[in-house]
Write a structure and sequence with these properties.
Blueprint: H1 10-17, E1 23-26, E2 29-32, H2 38-57, E3 61-73, E4 76-86, E5 106-110, H3 117-130, E6 134-139, E7 144-149, E8 155-158, E9 162-165, E10 169-175
Parallel strand pairs: 5-6
Antiparallel strand pairs: 1-2, 3-4, 4-5, 6-7, 7-8, 9-10
Length: 182
């Protein structure tokens, strides 16, 4: 006898798991991820500081971290390591306690040792299908950053290269190695 696990909607998932970290809803199923190690925390913090400082100084929009839950579809919600939503999409004001329901302008994910590249690409594709124009995956293992845009090939930036995102953050530039500084 095979017992199917019940599927959840994004709203049901948020009510049950909205307070948890390292858990996503993927096509109706709860997916738990192991807690990442120290390097993941260091890279996430560095990314938040680097992107956040630029975005806040330019008064472009909100920067969110700590697995901010993004409602991708009726049965999928993903927790982003870092995301940016322009004030054009989400005007200044008090942020909601609910899931983010507008596509961020930028999502940044940091690959954990437990994440396969298949996991990361699946997550990136979910973001793109939701309408996120740019997804950056930072990989501590290879000390690189991969940039994905809908309809274009992946751009890979090695640690000695300068990452720019002129389509979503005009004027932004950072040496990729800065994400890995301890």
């Amino acid at each position: 006898m095979v017992v199917a696990t019940p599927t959840l909607t994004a709203e049901e998932f948020f009510k049950l798991h909205g307070h948890e970290s390292n858990v996503d809803l993927v096509r109706g199923h709860v997916v738990r991820y192991p807690m990442p190690g120290t390097i993941h925390g260091v890279v996430c913090f560095n990314a938040a500081m680097i992107f956040g400082l630029f975005i806040k100084q330019a008064k472009l929009g909100r920067v969110m971290g700590n697995d901010t839950l993004i409602r991708i579809s009726a049965d999928t919600a993903r927790g982003a390591d870092l995301c940016y939503v322009s004030y054009a999409k989400l005007p200044p004001g008090k942020s909601s306690e609910k899931m983010l329901e507008v596509p961020p302008d930028l999502v940044v994910e940091v690959r954990s040792p437990s994440n396969t590249w298949t996991d990361m690409v699946e997550k990136m594709l979910d973001y793109q299908h939701f309408g996120v124009p740019v997804v950056v995956i930072i990989d501590p293992e290879t000390e690189s950053a991969s940039v994905y845009r809908s309809g274009t090939k992946q751009d890979i930036f090695e640690k000695n290269q300068t990452l720019t995102l002129p389509d979503v953050l005009p004027g932004f530039e950072v040496l990729v190695s800065r994400f890995f500084e301890e």
